[in-house]
Amino acid sequence: MSSHKPVMAQLMNIAPAELEARLSSFFPSADQRTAYTDPEIDEIASLLGLLGSCAARSPRIFIVLRMIGSLNRLHELLEHGFEDVWLPVERHSLPPSFPPHVRSDFVKAQAAVLTKSINLENGRHCHFSVDEPRPFEIQRRLGSGAYSQSFLGILMSPVAEMDLKSFLERLCANMKASIALDGVQQEISSLRAFFGCLAASISFLHDNRIRHKDLKPQNILIAGGTVVLTDFGLSRHFTDGQGSTTSGPTSATPRYSPPEVAAQESRNTSGDIWSLGCVFVEMGAALQGVSIDNIKEIFESEGTK
């Protein structure tokens, strides 16, 4: 939620040695600090970023480890997927390889970085007094006073970075251009994992007696390295007495619909499996650098609709 862009701009022209010294000033050798403010954490994040540290996105974890003299554990903790939003953690949540005393020290020291912005990042309500530093910038006021115009503002993060269609298109473009090899390999690994995630998601829906009825890459979002199903506008929940079978016209996307939908015949949960198979074809093709547009061209040349 917090933004350290203004701080970053002020530090851009400072020499690395001075950046290191400025970072060290936050960690006195004696009279260990007991708390850090959001602006201080923002500046530490900026310093870490300019110094090329992988901890720039998790400054609170960096601070806690440096406070307890266990900075050598940083990479191990980040490799386990730990991020600032995980805080506070219990001893058992830390990697098993951490010695008991390091776990205890970490749990005790983390209180120093549990600012209000952590609550915001974890979706909890916060109240900031007038003179208290805020982890956000005020752009304009929604309203004030008893008689002035008032508005309701909702702070929301994007649900996802992109949909699966955009993900596949970007992957194919990067593979074709042979750029950012490390990033391409990471995306390929993620895409391979999506097969199991999507199959499990559809299985979960059907186990709970729900048909999606409009599965396609545009209705699959990429969020936090995993996939999320969306757009349940055509979905159907079927009870024990009704069953999952329906018939008649539908607004589902023809390209991913089973033959019985095109024929307006009876269909059931197997329709979702057909649609998922169509999505899997495009995902498998993307792993070979074949885009959705390429598949369309092949279908058109072969006479397949």
UniProtKB/TrEMBL annotation:
Gene3D superfamilies according to UniProt: Transferase(Phosphotransferase) domain 1 (1.10.510.10)
Name of the protein in question: Kinase-like protein
Gene Ontology CC terms, in alphabetical order: cytoplasm; nucleus
Organism: Polyplosphaeria fusca
Residue span of region Disordered: 240-268
PANTHER family: OVARIAN-SPECIFIC SERINE/THREONINE-PROTEIN KINASE LOK-RELATED, SERINE_THREONINE-PROTEIN KINASE CHK2
Molecular functions per Gene Ontology: ATP binding; protein serine/threonine kinase activity
UniProt-listed InterPro entries: Kinase-like_dom_sf (IPR011009), Prot_kinase_dom (IPR000719), Ser/Thr_kinase_AS (IPR008271)
Gene Ontology terms describing biological process: mitotic DNA damage checkpoint signaling
Protein keywords: Kinase, Transferase
UniProt feature, compositional bias: Low complexity: 240-253
Residues of the Protein kinase domain: 71-305
